[in-house]
Design goal:
With 878 residues, the chain is an alpha+beta fold. Among the domains are: 181 residues, Immunoglobulin-like; 134 residues, Neutral Protease, domain 2; 94 residues, Sandwich (Immunoglobulin-like); 111 residues. The chain is 41% helix and 22% strand. The strands form eight sheets. It has an eight-stranded mixed sheet with strand order 6-5-9-3-2-12-15-14, with no helix packed on it. A five-stranded mixed sheet has the order 17-18-19-21-20, with helices on one face. A five-stranded mixed sheet has the order 28-31-26-25-33, with no helix packed on it. α8 packs antiparallel against α9. It is globular and about 90 Å long. It binds (3S)-3,7-diaminoheptanoic acid (B3K) and zinc ion. The site of zinc ion has 4 residues, from α3.
């Protein structure tokens, strides 16, 4: 194992490079056997660089072929090249051109960083540190340079040659080769470099910007998949229009290309003018993609497009600032989806994701601030904290400043920083200056790890006609951060009168209250409302206005009142979840629910289902009991996942069994023979119908199992087919095994649909699933170099199948650590991501903790990548 300090990079050590690279001329000769890269880097010292200061370029596994400065070859004593880079001991103290040549083996690059080959197509991934696997370079985001790229490749295997920017030349290069030259006029950091060479099909379209620039759009894919790219293209055009409308941001090049590849370490990459996508986030057709897939494609196409301004035009000074571009861009894509679809439904889904993924990260051994101040492996910081909590911070800023104030801040941010690499401090300064406010304390959100708990006590004084809320915030220690500061919490709220309508007040005192927003910036505060004639019911944290755990102690009666009357849809949903959560947690702890309390919840669920004003998508989200992981988190320690699983299923039965007739009627009423369409209303209808099917199964309603099997067999689209398959498998119905076998036989030839089968299998909460997964992995035809296949199976298991992963006998833990050790040798990023599934281990009961620790310790002695060893060290430090 590496020691704690080895390789640790600290934010406080940031210093600009003494040299900068201002322009880059790359020449790629791509052949089937290997690829030769010749780089001409125009380098200059920055002001103040002392004579004799070495130039240190990054390199990763490169073998230097030749090296020259201004055309003159260097002597061996002038430089040193090793596995980590290239040092020129005494470069000229003026502008000069450094020329290097290296030869790469993309075919053998299974890490999928740098230049690699995916199903025959050459492609690149450079963020964060992949460019150094292509050529020696200042591979840091604060070096912005203009790039010119010449590519030569065999015409037969690579008729399509793409790079960033605009195509300026093409032609025949003899010997069956051809070439293309691309120029990107926008200076950019190396992590945004991209090239693609391959035999690809495409669809094309165009978009005319507000100022009249006609942009040629194309999506490239393997031949035969063209028709499956239409939804992605539609999403792209809507994203371009939205960014103009909402933020006044236009696209800036004449072409925008997207390429779909099958082997990709994450979702997609925002390379300037040449986005590269994991094909699962491009391809969609109704019989193989679900509504969730359509939604994901729309969201990620938008996200990568929005990076053109938030990430590319304004980029990060260093990788500690990652959430500068990621948190902000996630916020932007969330807003896009909210505007295109339903704001309430989007908010609820995002909060579900935040709680399911980010809260456990923030409350476990891998907790870190949205802007970390140290790292050993930056690839391990592309986390839900940086992305999703980062987006929550931007959302709070928008809540505090209002939409117009937020927009003023964004405009000033672009005005000040366009074309440069910057920091969180500069981002906040733009909002502070544009609005004349101080954001010093607000900044703590970026620096502090952990989910704050917000406790609220209420009291009503009938005599004085006052209503008081006592607020308290607390954040528990996290690894490396023993003490915590008070944060600025924007708490949206409303008071409801006895008939459910909004209640006003004549005065308010005690804390900063602006209209229906309380701003809590101390550890505690008391807010007193005067002129309150009846005890109100408070709706707190409307729209989940701050990423906290709210502990309001409110009664079931008040919660169900909110579920019926709150004008805030998020809190109506939340209230129903809170009631289910309270019953489940009490039961796990040994206090069974009363018939009256379950009946009350059941009735509220029935009323929600029957409502004529709520939309289907909302109802589908509301008709649920919090998932097992959430119940576990609420309990917090000594968790027994089997007990939670049993209680949750019993509660689902108790609440939904009495609604069987109504659920079945809804199920039948929502049937449709209309052709599939991914619009919000149709998606919502399918979501609710499939939800009712799931609840009929969970409630063990007569005939439900057969109904699910019928839906599976007769489904007209993948959404309905998958829903029937997943809920039958989860419920372990007698029909489910036959359905799984049929699904594999029917769709096993389509890798992206096979992923769905792998994921449903891996999530099955039944004994034997580990052996099934072992058999799948042992099949020689299973592609262990493809991240999508591996993640669908093993990451799904570690993240979503808590009863089998956290088995008391340790078999689940051992399965995962053995997998990690094996795959680490092929692709360390996939391995380390899967290992993060262990982050729940400190919350488990003693036998499970022991078993987890034993499995993790077993990994320790082995030779591991930096990616895996970093996660493992942090995991075991707790
Ligand atoms: N910026 C890329 C993520 C790169 C991940 C590197 N480990 C995609 C995105 O967030 O848009
Ligand atoms: Zn991003």
């Amino acid at each position: 194992m590496r020691t704690e300090t080895e390789h640790t990079i600290y934010l406080k050590d940031y210093a600009p490079s003494p040299y900068r690279i201002v322009s880059v001329d790359l020449d790629f000769k791509i052949l089937v056997e290997n690829t030769r890269v010749r780089a001409l880097l125009t380098v200059e010292p920055i002001e103040g660089t002392a004579p004799g200061t070495p130039l240190v370029l990054d390199g990763d596994g490169l073998v230097l072929g030749s090296i020259a400065i201004d055309g003159a070859p260097l002597m061996l004593s002038d430089y040193a090249a090793n596995d980590d880079g290239l040092t020129l001991f005494e470069p000229p103290l003026r502008k000069f051109v450094l020329e290097t040549e290296v030869t790469l083996q993309p075919e053998n690059n299974t890490k999928l960083m740098g230049l690699y080959r995916s199903s025959g197509t050459w492609c690149t991934q450079c963020e964060p540190e992949g460019f150094r696997r292509i050529t020696y370079y200042l591979d840091r985001p604060d070096n912005l340079a203009v790039f010119k790229v010449r590519m030569t490749a065999p015409l037969d295997v690579a008729p399509v040659l793409l790079a960033n920017g605009n195509l300026v030349d093409t032609g025949d290069a003899g010997d069956g080769l051809h070439y293309a030259v691309w120029e990107d006029p926008f200076p950019k950091p190396a992590y945004l470099f991209a090239l693609v060479a391959g035999d690809l099909g495409s669809i094309t379209d165009s978009f005319t910007t507000g100022s009249g620039r006609k942009v040629d759009l194309a999506i490239y894919c393997s031949h035969g998949k063209e028709a499956q790219c239409l939804w992605a293209m539609d999403s792209l055009k809507r994203s371009m229009a939205w960014d103009e409308r909402r933020f006044g941001l236009e696209y800036d090049l004449d072409v925008f290309n997207i390429v779909a590849v099958s082997d990709f370490n994450f979702g997609a990459m925002e390379n300037k003018g040449l986005n590269i996508f994991n094909d699962r986030l491009v391809f969609a057709k109704p019989d193989t993609a679900t509504d969730g897939d359509y939604d994901g494609i729309e969201r990620v196409i938008a996200h990568e497009y929005f990076h053109n301004w938030t990430g590319n035009r304004v980029t990060c000074r260093d990788w500690f600032q990652l959430c500068l571009k990621e948190g902000l861009t996630v916020y932007r894509d969330q807003e896009f989806t909210s505007d295109e679809r339903s704001r309430a439904v989007k908010r609820i889904s995002d909060v579900v994701t935040l709680r399911r993924a980010q809260f456990p990260e923030d409350g476990g051994p891998l907790a870190h601030p949205p802007r970390p101040d140290q790292y050993r492996e930056i690839n391990n910081f592309y986390t839900t904290t940086v992305y999703e909590k980062g987006a929550e911070i931007v959302r709070m800023l928008a809540t505090l400043l209002g939409e117009a104030g937020f927009r003023k801040g964004m405009d000033l941010y672009f005005e000040r920083h366009d074309g440069s690499a910057t920091t969180i401090e500069a981002f906040l300064a733009a909002f502070a200056d544009a609005n004349g406010v101080n954001l010093d304390q607000f900044k703590t959100w970026y620096l502090q790890a952990g989910t704050p708990k917000l406790s609220v006590d209420e009291s009503y004084d009938a005599e004085k006609q006052t209503y008081t809320l006592k607020l308290k915030q607390e954040t528990l220690p996290t690894p490396g951060q023993a003490t915590k500061q008070a944060l600025v919490l924007p708490i949206k709220f409303g008071l409801l009168g006895p008939n459910g309508s909004p209640m006003g007040w004549s005065g308010v005192s005690g804390a900063e209250v602006r209209g229906e927003l309380i701003v809590l910036d101390g550890a505690t505060a008391e807010v007193t409302f005067t002129g309150i004639a009846n005890r109100p019911v408070a709706s707190l944290l409307r729209g989940f206005s701050a990423p906290v755990v709210l502990d309001s102690q409110s009664s079931q009666e008040d919660q169900l009142f909110l579920a019926r009357h709150d004008s805030d849809p998020f809190n109506r949903w939340q209230a129903l979840q809170d009631v289910g959560m309270a019953l489940a947690v009490a039961a796990v702890k040994g206090t069974p629910w009363s018939d009256a309390s379950v009946t009350a919840l059941s009735q509220a669920m029935g009323d929600t289902l029957g409502s004529e004003t709520l939309d289907d998508a909302f109802k589908a989200l509301a008709l649920n009991i919090p998932d097992e992981q959430s119940i576990g988190r609420e309990i917090g320690r000594d968790i027994d996942p089997d007990a939670i699983h049993l209680v949750r299923n019993a509660l689902l039965r108790a609440v939904f069994e009495p609604l069987a007739t109504q659920l079945l009627a809804t199920y039948n009423a929502l049937a449709s023979t209309a052709p599939y369409s991914p619009d919000a209303a149709s998606t919502g209808r399918r979501a609710l119908r499939n939800r009712t099917l799931g609840l009929l199964l969970a409630g063990e309603a007569a005939g439900a199992q057969v109904l699910a099997a019928q839906q599976y067999a007769g489904a007209g689209n993948m959404t309905d087919r998958m829903a029937a398959l997943a809920s039958s498998t989860y419920a372990n119905t007698p029909e489910s095994l036959g359905m799984l076998a049929d699904f594999r036989a029917r769709f096993g030839g389509d890798p992206l649909v096979l992923d769905k089968w792998l994921a449903v299998t891996a999530a099955a909460p039944r004994d034997g699933v580990i052996d099934e997964m072992k058999a799948i992995l042992a099949d020689p035809s299973f592609p262990k170099t493809n991240p999508n296949r591996l993640r669908s199976l093993v990451a799904t298991f570690a993240m979503n199948n808590i009863t089998q992963f956290a088995r008391a006998d340790g078999a689940g833990f051992r399965f995962v650590t053995e997998f990690v050790a094996e795959v680490d040798k092929i692709n360390p990023q996939v391995a380390s991501r899967v290992l993060t599934g262990f982050r729940i281990w400190p919350m488990l009961d003693a036998p499970r903790r022991e078993a987890a620790k034993a499995a993790l310790s077993g990994l320790q002695g082995q030779s591991l990548s930096r990616n895996v060893s970093d996660i493992l060290t942090r995991m075991l430090a707790s």
